[in-house]
Amino acid sequence: KRAKKVRFYRNGDRYFNGIVYAISADRFRTFDALLADLTRSLSDNVNLPQGVRTIYTLDGKKITSIDQLLEGESYICSSIEAYKKLDYTKNVNPNWSVNVKASSRSPLSMSSPKPGAPEGRESK
Fold it and tell me: Which segments constitute the Doublecortin domain (predicted)?
């Protein structure tokens, strides 16, 4: 049985382009396991601070099991707040975030200094 590819958006976030997930029974044995994984991917102090508790369809219907997720469809992840109606598939990128790849820069604490480089500062 193949994995279903679905896209998840954050509730009310018009600047988030969504994240594509491959949903399979092997990877997510329970609906709670999926919610926990989505929490790790989508939640921080600003967005979904209580974690992902609810998944909605694009028209606001609540999803209660993995079986309801359909191949190629998009869904909205929410914490405890009600579904916010937006056109998630047309999310906009504000000009200041275009071509900015924040995730590609590794934090300095993660990168080891190069041999011969001064301690604490990376040579460019």
Answer: 4-89
> Which is nearest to 18 in space by CA: 101, 88, 99, 72?
88
Alpha-carbon gap, residue 65 to 111, rounded angstroms: 40
- Distance CA(118)–CA(33), nearest Å, equals 45
Structural domain boundaries in the chain: 4-99
SS3 19: strand
Average pLDDT of the chain?
82
Alpha helices, DSSP H, located in the chain: 31-42
**DSSP, res 37:** H
Read off the pLDDT of residues 57-102 as tens digits, 9 standing for 90 and up.
999 999 999 999 999 999 999 999 999 999 998 877 655 544 445 5
